[in-house]
Amino acid sequence: MKNKNPHCFSLFFLLPLTFFSTISFAASPAEDLASLKLATDTIWLVAAGALVFFMQAGFALLESGMVRAKNAVNVIMKNYVDMCFGGLVFWMVGYGLMFGTNPTGWFGTDHFFLSTGKDMEFTWLFFQTMFAAVSATIVSGAIAERSHFWAYIFGSMLITAFIYPVYGSWAWGSLYEGSGWLKKMGFIDFAGSGVVHTIGGWCALAALIVIKPRLGKYGRNDEVRSIPGHNLSSVSLGGFILWIGWFGFNGGSGLIAATNIGQIVLNTHLGGTAGAVGALFAMVITRNPILLTNTVNGSIAGLVAVTAGCATMSPMFAALTGFIAGILMMMSSSVMDKLRLDDVVGAVSVHAICGSWGVLAAGLFKHGDLFNIQIITVQAIGIMAAFLWAFPCSLIMYLIIDKTIGLRTSTSNEQKGLDYTEHYEIGYPEFQQNILHQGKE
Amino acid sequence: MVDSTLNEQEAAKRRKAIHYGLAEFLEKQELLSALWIWEKEFGKTPSAFDSLYSFTKRVCEHFNKISIRSDIHNSLLNAMLMPENELGTDPHREMLAMQSTSPPPAKAIVPPKPAAAVTTTVSVEEELAKNIPAANIVFSVLLQSILNQIDKQRKEDGVECRNYLAEIILKLQLSSIANIELRGFILTQKPKFLLKAYSREQMSQLLHTLYIWMCQYVGPVMSDTIMATALRSAESLPESSQFSPRSLL
User: Fold this and answer.
1) Across the interface, do A215 and B216 touch by the CB < 8 Å criterion?
2) What is the C-alpha to C-alpha distance for residues B72 and B15, in angstroms, rounded to an integer?
3) CA A44 – CA A324 distance, rounded (Å)
4) Are A186 and A2 in contact, with CB atoms under 8 Å apart?
């Protein structure tokens, strides 16, 4: 999480601001420099946070494009609303659990409802809130087209408030006093392949097990049926937006404006490109059709994987990490279908499997310390810890939600489409051919 | 209401004129049969004169009166132009009496050409449809359209689907008569429209069960397409303005 090479940017556009503040306070040159650095860090983190926020739009477009037209509004709503509730609960509980003073190494104990503090604390909170929202929203795509809206939102709130921050405190805590147990061991997860993506991915897997496949996804003769999304332009646009957002996601994760951001975002980009190439390679050698959806997912898989080690590996290994992630994504998608786990957008493959690979790759390809068995062992412990924490917790949570609120909608609602049954709105009233309802009588 | 009364008066006048015009050429039973043909196929056209040519041709071919066709046509034309009070009584009662004591005239008269047969069938069904609730017509068309589309996909699937639905019907808590009718409708596709009373919930439940079956057997994408096509068929019916097919899906 912390940057190893914290040289300040020479951002000339900031100089006039600093100049006036210098005059006002008549501070010493050292104070001026510290002030300039703080301002620069703040600006960069806020901008990076905004880019991470923009990823929500990417997820919304990607996921809504991958579902049938009758469920498009529902998916967008889930992405929109989980971010809203997630933002509130992370401010109330999550931030304190994740980054508060951590005397035991297992969870933070203060800074809940953060209302007073240093300027930078608010910046951190803002930036980390965006991360929490990303983790929670991963589930929505996996269980799209058959999940009850409020059951999903309730689950995403618990992930943001509890499951995500607790693991985060092990790997990244604390920003104040104390340290997470994984962090103490030297666990490398620079921007969250493990903390953000595998946690979201394992929660998605638990939700998939509880919710069961969509009607007719798997036929009576064990055939796997393709249920194509309604808007592939939206899928590709979502992929582009996620990619842009990732520059802020990884670039901002040092929490300061440093000169190594260039390499971090370069590695990020190489990971994404190699991920798409890896997925294409897998499609070609397995003689599968060259699908846009798989190509976009391949690039996202590469971005997920490179996230852990983008600050600690060379560009060559960043590309290799992404390439392998693209292939892994294709392989695990096929395994998911064999296991009859109907993951609409491939969230488990992309986030859980490739996130875990990314954490391992960060240990394998650590710059200047390649294939160090001690580092690899710590990384493996981190991967196992993520699974053993997030999967059982979320499985219990979703089972309880299913028994109480009801995670899955009725088959009748699935027939009508969740846009109509959950929201009484339809995304494409003018030309939607397959939609059966345009409003209640 | 005013228009309806006028139309009924006009229809009665035309009926009297046809009866008067044909009386000297046909036996009583033939005459009444010919009147039924007029009623069902030609009587509701805006201009009675325009229909006379086709009607005369039809009657002459059927009753072997080709040689006196022009006489019959002239007689009918003259009758149409006569004042109503000179045409005698309305033969409607005799027509109804004939319908109740003998097979329906429209069926008794074997249509001479396939095209005419189609016209007759449609006409009878239109007549029948007047008394069937709009919900039944809409539901019948939806169900029939879906089943026909499944048949087109794979004939074996269609048979399996019909058998499955026939079993499911037992769970719908229908009256025994409705149960028999619905089972017959699904298995044999007859009659064209269901006549018994079915609640909206029962109709929705059956269509939803059918949707689930389709998802399992032909896949969810094809199921949505089939449902959408059936919906378009049902929405093209005039009855859909009284009873929306969307309320069943």
Assistant:
1) yes
2) 15
3) 31
4) no
- Res. A271: pLDDT tops 80: yes
Cα A421 from Cα A439, distance rounded (Å): 10
Cis geometry, peptide bond prior to residue A103 (ω within 30 degrees of 0): no
Nearest to A303 by CA among A55, A3, A26: A55
pLDDT digits (tens, 9 = 90+) for B34-66: 888 888 777 777 667 667 777 887 888 778 787
Q: Answer whether A411 sits within 8 Å of B228, measured CB to CB.
A: no
**A329 pLDDT higher than 90:** yes
Token duo for residue A362: 């960060």
The interface pTM score, or ipTM, of the predicted complex is 0.78
DSSP line for A213-275? PPTTSB-TTSPBPP---S-HHHHHHHHHHHHHHHHHHHHGGGSS-BTTHHHHHHHHHHHHHHH
Contacts of B206 in chain A (CB under 8 A): none
Average pLDDT over residues A231-260: 95
Q: What is the dihedral of CA A385, A390, A393, A395, to 10 degrees?
A: -130
Query: CA-CA distance, B83 to B193, in Å (whole number)?
Result: 42
Chain B residue numbers with beta carbons less than 8 Å from the beta carbon of A216 are 214-216, 219-220, 223
DSSP-derived 3-state class of residue B26: coil
Tell me the pLDDT of chain B averaged across its residues: 77
Q: How high is the pLDDT of residue B2?
A: 37
Contact B208 A411 (CB under 8 A): yes
Please write the tens of the pLDDT for every residue from B167-225.
Answer: 888 777 777 787 788 888 888 776 677 777 788 888 888 889 889 988 988 899 889 88
For an interface test with B, the pick among A419, A436, A437, A440 (most B C-beta atoms closer than 10 Å) comes out as A436
CA–CA separation, A127 and A91 (whole Å): 11
Question: On the CB side of B161, how many CA atoms lie within 13 Å of its CA?
Answer: 29
Six token digits for residue B191: 């009659």
Distances in Å between the Cα of B220 and the Cα atoms of A15, A42, A216, A289, A334 are 61, 50, 5, 21, 20
